[in-house]
Amino acid sequence: MAHSKIGWKTAAALVISNMIGTGVFTSLGYQISDLKNTTSILLLWSIGGVLALIGAFIYSELASKFKQSGGDYIYLSRTFHPLFGYLSSWISLFVGFSAPISLAALAMGKYLNVFGLELGKEFAIAMIVIVAVFQSFSLNLSSKFQNIFTVLKVGFIIILIALGFYFAPAVEPNAVLFDSTWKNELLLPAFATSLVYVTFAYTGWNSASYIIEEIDRPKRNLPKALFVGVIFVTISYVLLNFVFLKHASSAALEGQENIANISFGNLLGNHVKWVSCFIALQLIATISGYLWIGSRLTQATARENKLWNFMAKENKNRIPVRAIWVHTTISIFLIFSGDFEVIFTYTSFVLQILATLAICTAFFIKRDELTIIKSRFFYVLPAVFLMFSLYICYFVLMQKPKESLFGLGIIALGIILFYVDKRIDSKDIE
What keywords would UniProt list here (predicted)? Predict the structure, then answer.
């Protein structure tokens, strides 16, 4: 039986699903505590989009060069050292894919609580398990499930933006502030730490590159999927944040996670329950997207490392079922560990380090291997990304030392496991 492949639309749906999750509906509450100027906040979201677009260009070139599913694992292992590839998979297994699945499932419960249901951790676990079941049978079923919930997600985002712009501000004074203070806010450490929440919200721009072997005509369809996905999400994020600011006061939004409920609650009154319902529903696509991509990255690692080997097994439809259920189990475990903001911060920090390492591999692509930007200008892109990444990581380490050290601890544990894995491998050879 021929192994079916996905087109650019399903690949773009995966990119959009992986990107639009909990980040855009929660980050503003953390940002507005220190940044009051609307220009500063919209600039944050625009910078995040530009970095994601730069990343999409780079990953299109990397995927074209290596032609193998596995994303960061393949690029780092083949370019630097197997240790870096191993670390990328270790980080992705726990932090890159499983943590966002947990956060999305927990956020679903929070948004549905407006119906007085009091949904907690048990509901979050049930949602993850249901999505995992749909992912476990065939690529065709996974694609249909993904596409349906992504269409729902896209339609809902467009309606939210349209409503927000159509109606006059629901509160006076609202949080929209355009004056010259934005120039001073750009120099604040809080601007850099806010960027880490923004880059988390954009996480997933690289997702389609992890499954290049499942994409039909990847040289043409992968860049298309990445660019369409990233551009749509960037425009949506900038407009959504403006709408949130337009319909709520600064004091009401500060430090809050459910900012969409606050803003649209002012605008729609009791009808906000349906906004909450749709936010919860669109998060199903996020859980599905992360589970799909994460399991493929884990499978790529499992093929080459002893400790992970049991996760390489596929079913008759070439679905990595064991990897899917390992991610499911870890996501459930993470639901019982830590506070939402703590998980959010250390996840964002560690993923920024991983993205920085992966983007550095672009400097090793030879000029005659380039397929999109066939000039020396290409190498300016990873340099810009690197500069912003180091700036973000430095300030997060300074401002959030506890969460950052926890993240670095996860990396240290991965280094230990790599050498344990190598020892097991060398004993088997002997």
Answer: Membrane, Transmembrane, Transmembrane helix
The verdict on whether omega for the bond into residue 100 sits within 30 degrees of 0, i.e. cis, is no
Cβ atoms of residues 146 and 288 within 8 Å: yes
- Tens of pLDDT, residues 70-111: 778 888 988 998 899 888 888 888 777 888 888 889 888 888
- Burial of 180: CB neighbours in 10 Å, binned 0-12, 13-18, 19+: exposed
Per-residue burial over 236-250, b = 16 or more CB atoms within 10 Å of its CB, e = otherwise? bbbbbbbbbbbbbbb
CA pair distance 115, 344, nearest whole angstrom: 26
Residue found under tokens 């509450």 = 29
How far apart CA 205 and CA 17 sit, in angstroms, is: 10
- CA dihedral for 129, 134, 137, 139, sign (positive or negative): negative
Say yes or no to pLDDT of 10 above 50: yes
- Specify the 3-state DSSP secondary structure of 371: coil
Q: How far apart are CA 403 and CA 94, in angstroms?
A: 15
DSSP 203-267: TTTTGGGGGGGGBSSHHHHHHHHHHHHHHHHHHHHHHHHHHHHHTS-HHHHTT-S-HHHHHHHHH
Dihedral, CA of residue 30, residue 237, residue 359 and residue 356, to nearest 10: 0
Domain ranges of the chain: 8-420
As a whole number of angstroms, the distance between CA 189 and CA 261 comes to 28
Amino acid occupying residue 1 = M
Residues 6+ apart with CB under 8 A from 5: 139, 214, 215, 216
pLDDT of residue 409 exceeding 50: yes
Residue 231 Rama label (left phi>0; alpha psi -120 to 50; beta): alpha
Distance CA 257, CA 110 (A): 9
CA distance 356 to 365: 16
What pTM, to 2 d.p., does this model score?
0.81
- pLDDT tens for each residue of 117-136: 778 788 999 999 999 998 88
For 120, which DSSP code? -
**CA 76, CA 83: separation in Å to the nearest integer?**
8
Measured CA to CA, the distance from residue 372 to residue 368 in angstroms comes to: 11
